[in-house]
Amino acid sequence: MLSDGHVSTTDSRVLSVSRSSRHNFSKDRVESVLLVEGLGVDGDAHSGTTVQHVFRKRSHPTEPNLRQVHLIHAELFDELEPDGFELHPGDLGENITTRGIDLLNLPEGTLLRIGPDAVVQVTGLRSPCRQIDRFQTGLLKAVLPRDSAGKLVRKTGVMGIVLAGGLVNVDDEIRVELPAGPQRRLNCV
Asked: Does the pLDDT value for residue 60 go beyond 90?
């Protein structure tokens, strides 16, 4: 970490961007997405100030939307390929596929400065649902392994909220800014 609270990320980039206006499992890859402050990805089904996840919306429709943007690290696709899983950006419903950032180990509240203007605050881990096995059989177990202590490890990326809007393009730089003070590990949101 640099003295100003930023993490040096010389090769952290946006590999791909995706969105879908419907609540599909996978999202369509596009050339760019517009992040809208306080809402999420313009034109995406999960955009909104209150929870938009279909299952969660039924029971908690007025809760704040902590899942405006879904980010996955492309390194996960590389990790799963030897086990026979073929995954591409957008397949797991993420809006932004990254390369060069250890997303899963960022603390809660981390700021991701993407491109010249956009800022996403990391709110928590994504917990995959059973639909992932409909996409590719056995994938749920592969993305929810247990560590040496028997603790569940969630590998399907992180969720965030948009603090500052802006256009996000493929190959945009991502700069990581860790929160000040004590840092909390990510939990599911």
From this structure: no
Residue 34's identity, in one-letter code, is L
Q: Which residue has the tokens 């640099």?
A: 2
Residue whose C-alpha is closest to residue 73's, from 85, 84, 89, 62: 89
Write down the pLDDT at residue 10: 55
The residues near 115 (Cβ < 8 Å, ≥ 6 apart) are 14, 166, 167, 168, 169, 172, 173
C-alpha 64/C-alpha 56 separation (Å) is 11
Is residue 81 scored above 90 in pLDDT? Answer: yes
Q: Which amino acid is at 80?
A: L
pTM of the full predicted structure? 0.92
User: Which sign does the torsion angle of CA 26, 28, 29, 31 carry?
Assistant: negative
| 23-48: pLDDT as tens digits | 999 999 999 999 999 999 999 999 99
The residues with which 45 forms a beta bridge, in sequence order, are none
In sequence order, what are the residues at sequence separation of 6 or more whose Cβ sits closer than 8 angstroms to the Cβ of residue 16? 29, 74, 89, 90, 96, 97, 170
